[in-house]
Amino acid sequence: MKWVAAAAAFAAMTGLALAQQPTFFRIGTGGTAGTYYPVGGLIANAISGHGDKGVPGLVATAVASNGSVANVNAIESGSMESGFSQSDVAFWAYTGTGLYDGKAKVEDLRIIANLYPETIHLVASKASGIKSVADLKGKRVALDEPGSGTLVDARIVLSAFGLTEKDIKPEYLKPGPASDRLRDGALDAFFFVGGYPTGAISELASSTAIELVPITGPEVDKMLAQYKFFAKDKVPADTYKGVAATDTISVNAQWVTSAKQPDDLIYNIVKVLWNKDSRAALDAGHAKGKLITLDNATNGLGIPLHPGAERFYKEAGVLK
């Protein structure tokens, strides 16, 4: 009977070990100088299990990436469990349109939560004399890296004003390196899509005379009618040092995952995301954190919610 007792003890120990195995959950974000990365860190810390907080056994991490497109592709391939994406990129991926025209649809893409508006920044040095999108012709302009949602939107904005990359001197840089080059006089302007204020632009404005270029006018009105995921937006005065209030446009930042992720896991993650401890962390951790609210979590989705998330939102009364 000793071997029976030993086997039972071993089974119990093995079961305990299995029960204690952590569940890893990566959140693809963006460049470290943008908004996705710090917000992703806040959310990862809030949902990770530690003490009596978070999802028990969950180890969530924010991973720097090239942004929306790269995150969607990583979710599709299984190299990331989740990630942040602009609403336009998520819609295109799911429907096989726009940027994903001619590519296989990412049919398993699902939403965990809508997060906050992402503002399209067009940052220019005052010395460049750039006052409108049309003024970018012939200028040195950074459009962000391939795989980023910023690059996609920058191309749409240029096109609205009758411009292509052939009409400018394009560079493909994240906002951090682009800021450095603009500060050094090696760049005239750069695009960045993200929640304001973003660290790289705040730092740049503290040492360099910059302007936000308005993205407005009849060209933009026509563009908004064509691309429903854009909305009018305004960056308030002095969001960045010495920069006046600027009319522009925005898309939504969304937290997306795969339909293959377990329903109970996503349900528990969403439940913790909207508890009082997470609320306090979001409010205190980043200017955009205050805009991440349960009331807005199911607005402007464009693609289906993950069933686990949908279950929570129905229980919470924000979905019927």
Automatic annotation (TrEMBL):
Alphabetical list of Pfam families matching this protein: NMT1_3
Extent of the signal sequence: 1-19
Keywords carried by this UniProt record: Signal
Transmembrane segments: none
Stored InterPro entries: TRAP_TAXI
NCBIfam families hit by this protein: TRAP_TAXI (TIGR02122)
Name used for this protein in its record: TAXI family TRAP transporter solute-binding subunit
Organism in which the protein naturally occurs: Ancylobacter mangrovi
